Amino acid sequence: MKKYGQHIIIWLVLAFLYLPILILSFYSFTDSTMIGSVRGFSIHNYITLFTEPALIRMMFGTLSLAVVVAVLSVLLGTTGAVGAYYGKKGIRRTIEIFNQVPIVNADVVTGFSICVFMIVLLHMDKNTYIPLIIAQTALCTPFVYLSVTPRLKMMDDSLYEAAMDLGCNPSQALRKAVLPQIAPGIVSGFMTAITLSLDDYFVATYTKPATFDTISTYVVNATRGAQTSIKTALWALSAVLFVIVVLAVVIANLRAQNEEEESARL
Amino acid sequence: MRNFHLDRRQLSIPYLIYLILFVVMPLLVVLYYGFTDENGNISFANFIIFFTNSKTMGTLVYSVAIAVVVTVICLLLAYPVAYILAKGKYARKHSFLMIFVLPMWINFTLRITALKEILTMLEGNLAYHPFVNTVICMVYDFLPFMIMPLFNALTKLDSSIIEAGYDLGADFPQVLKRVILPLTVPGIISGITMVFLPAMTNYVVLDMVYNSTYIMGSLIGSYFSSYDWNNGSIISAILLMLIGFFAIFTERIMNRVEKEEQRI
């Protein structure tokens, strides 16, 4: 009886989380413009999604921005974490505290404050994309830092010393002894940065060039307007993203499983 | 080049500079703009006006109301789920957790669009129930952020302590109240921090379900569109203070819990 109740809770919450996106994905394959009225099967939403120039520009722009921001975040966050790990306690504490700020702060405030600082006070041009990239990097890097730091703590420090004893210089030792050990943290930090950038609305709104749109700003504008062909094409985009995320999670899970089995065999 | 020695400690310098320039400086600038007038003179006028104007105070109350309701519902939904996942008989609990947090990785505006279409089908016109629809959409958006910290806290919780409670004659409600809840307070608090502030500030969700009432975030948005940096900054400053209080409060509770745990 108790077991029964547990199943009900789990399935109800899963239904709440998944039904909307599944129903929307189903309707993305029809030519209806609102949910509830099924007409015929059609892939015109997918054709619009991949042929409409505005949509392609938006998807390409969002993705390029995410990659640029994630690469910068990984560089800053990884070097920051390594430096802080070996550095003086005072500096490490300072970095840890500042690192926490964008995480606990509201995204609206993060975006607005960077906008006031760079665009209002320093008169930087939004159209250079520099404020946008800097702001999103400030948003994402703390999460890279947080995913690299535990790997550093788990790391075997004697490997670095051994590399030095065998004639490596410090930067070689870092690259060949430390980097491989913290690589999983760097990878997951990179993925977190990508998803944060893709999900971000507020920081982008306050710092982006007026003519540039990310997925979030585009969707919010599209729901205000009444252009239904774009609106239903976005359903197709949801379905595509859903499939990509599911595949990514399944692959990541299988990999983690393999790794576990490998380490169990060792 | 031979004389160049890369000290690994120096690696943190670029990030430290970045944090000071693009995290700390902007917040200081916002505080400056918030507490000066258009001529750059120190002024508490904006601050006082916020707390005496009935419109802005109404906004504050409305955002707190939404945030409290959303946080409580998230907690009530997430706790049983996290408990069943962490302590139930499911094999591969981490893969199971993944299923619950997976929606987090799909763009939130697209997820809200999906839910919005469903709600429109059920209700006809979303504008009739703005508060309820906002709460539903926010719970949908933030639930995974509540499940994760609760799951982590419950996984860490030693099952033998729970069994000891039963062995001493307690029933489930007693064990829950005296053992499980007190020992998962840190998880509950980090879940609340993940949900409460976004619920006070994420005005996009309100926009998308045609809720025309303002929350704190909408004020920043509207001052931004009218280039009113001083007033936008004062709202940011007030939110920053709120975050500050919250952080101090959290720190205190965490310390107390830690001490209790050491006693055990």
Strand and helix map with partners:
The complex is a heterodimer of chains A (about 270) and B (about 260).
Chain A: H1 2-27, H2 44-51, H3 53-86, H4 89-104, H5 107-121, H6 130-154, H7 158-165, H8 170-199, H9 202-207, H10 215-224, H11 228-265
Helix pairs in contact in A: 1-11, 2-11, 3-4, 3-6, 3-8, 4-6, 5-6, 6-8, 7-8
Chain B: H1 13-34, H2 45-52, H3 54-87, H4 93-101, H5 108-123, H6 130-156, H7 159-167, H8 172-183, H9 185-201, H10 203-208, H11 216-225, H12 229-263
Description:
The complex is a heterodimer of chains A (266) and B (264). With 266 residues, chain A is an all-alpha fold. Chain A folds into 2 domains: 82 residues, no CATH class; 173 residues, MetI-like fold, CATH 1.10.3720. Chain A is built from 11 helices and no strands. The two termini of chain A are 42 Å apart. The mean pLDDT of chain A is 91. Chain B is mainly alpha-helical. Chain B has one domain: MetI-like (MetI-like fold), CATH 1.10.3720.10. Chain B is built from 12 helices and no strands. The longest helix of chain B is centred in the last third of the chain and has 35 residues. Chain B is globular and about 70 Å long. Chain B starts with 12 loop residues before the first helix and ends with a helix. At the A-B interface, helix 1, helix 3, helix 4, helix 5 and helix 6 of A face helix 1, helix 3, helix 4, helix 5 and helix 6 of B.
